[in-house]
Amino acid sequence: MDSLSPENVRLPEKPLFVCVLANTATAYIEGLSAAGKTAKLTDYTPAGDAEVLHKGTIIDIPVLPMTPPYDTPTPALITRAALQLTGVPQLLVNAGLRVLPAKEVPLVDIGGKPGEDIRGSAAVKDVEKVFRNAFNLGQGLAQKHDLIMIGESIPAGTTTANAVLQSLGYDGNVSSSSSSNPLKLKRDVVEAALKSSGITFGSLRDDPFKAIGCVGDPMMVAVAGIAAGLGNTRLMLAGGTQMEAIYALIKHLGYPTDNIMIVTTSYVAADGSANFGEIAGQLGARCYGVDPGFGESESPGLKQYERGFVKEGVGAGGAVYLALMHGYSRIDIRMEIEKLCLELCRL
Ligand code: AAM
Asked: Comparing C-alpha atoms, which of 287, 281, 243, 284 is closest to residue 269?
């Protein structure tokens, strides 16, 4: 019996789902991210995801975040539907958004700015200041909750994760929002990024803040800061290889990791173009890949997840895991997701 499977883990009394949102100009590199219809439209993806999480639909953002070429809908709808079932509350954190969601969407601002292209000289500004703000937020959350789950939305986040993992000395391919992982392009971008900052493999093992500042993104500093501020409070990092990069940052900053597990979808865990399991092994991280069962779905949008489009994001795998922990069946969860998908895909 798997001790990490959702039916075997302890149910929290006061859980909270946190979604950390930001942009990085790295997403403007054509072909790097599929978390938006075009590279330019990825600017709107985290804000659109925030609106879907908050209201179950887009509000001011003109288009639902979609992955080309078949317009696979954002994983935010999976997270929204699963959280609605469980009644677990959510908190949205602005870690550096270029485009804001509608005013009615409550955001906690930790003072971050959108990230720059990691091939330039600086990717994230004021890393230590933003980390402290996030740390304080984490400390406050630990007073009120016994489990925090953190998801993210930041297009091109898998590439920045790759660069940070390498600078800390972890090898392996990261996953992708695209069904065909642009590995060659990612390798070129990461190589140029490391070179522009004079970083070699593992050279920033002892300087994780510098890794974020030179080749990371604003979401990472926020999640790492919140995690550090949580102390021993149970933490689930909801995501794939991006959350592995954050786990590495927390570890190299010298904060405890015994309270952390990484939860993702089976689509990332089994992604043959990436090395989710191998990287978790190098980190010594406890991790779990949830199968949302979209293979059984009649919904064309959800079926595409099975074919490798999108795969994960906005803490979708973690949110499904939470619903399973709460005793909902896979079928009930899938039906709730299908209902919302049907409504959103009509937009
Ligand atoms: C977040 N929102 C999304 C989405 N993600 N909306 C549509 N599709 C997605 N995949 P990459 O590095 O390839 O851009 O993948 C990372 C992004 O994809 C993140 O924003 C993640 O949350 C997901």
From this structure: 287
E-only strand ranges, 228-297: 234-238, 260-265, 286-290
**CA torsion, points 161, 118, 105, 37, in degrees to nearest 10?**
-90
Site to probe by mutation for ligand 1, drawn from 28, 40, 177, 189 as the one with most ligand atoms within 8 Å of Cβ, is 177
Is 271 a pocket residue for ligand 1 (Cβ < 6 Å)? no
- Interval 212-267: pLDDT, tens: 999 999 999 999 999 999 999 999 999 999 999 999 999 999 999 999 999 999 99
Taking the model in full, what pTM does it have?
0.98
Strand ranges in the chain using DSSP code E only, listed in sequence order: 15-22, 66-67, 72-73, 90-96, 108-109, 147-153, 234-238, 260-265, 286-290
Q: Which atom of ligand 1 is nearest to the CA of 76?
A: 2
At 79-115, the pLDDT tens digits run 999 999 999 999 999 999 999 999 999 999 999 999 9
CB of residue 159 inside a 6 A radius of ligand 1: yes
How would you classify residue 87: left for phi > 0, otherwise alpha for psi between -120 and 50, otherwise beta?
Answer: left
Give residue 222's identity as a one-letter amino acid code. Answer: A
Residue 1 has pLDDT above 90, yes or no: no
Residue pointed to by tokens 């001790």: 3
7-11, 17-21, 254-258, 284-288: the lowest-pLDDT one: 7-11
> Which residues does 187 contact at the CB level (< 8 Å), separation at least 6?
none
Can you tell me the distance from the alpha carbon of 125 to that of 86, in angstroms, rounded to the nearest whole number?
Answer: 37
Coil, helix or strand for 340? helix
Report residue 141 as tokens: 């959350």
**Complex-level ipTM:** 0.98
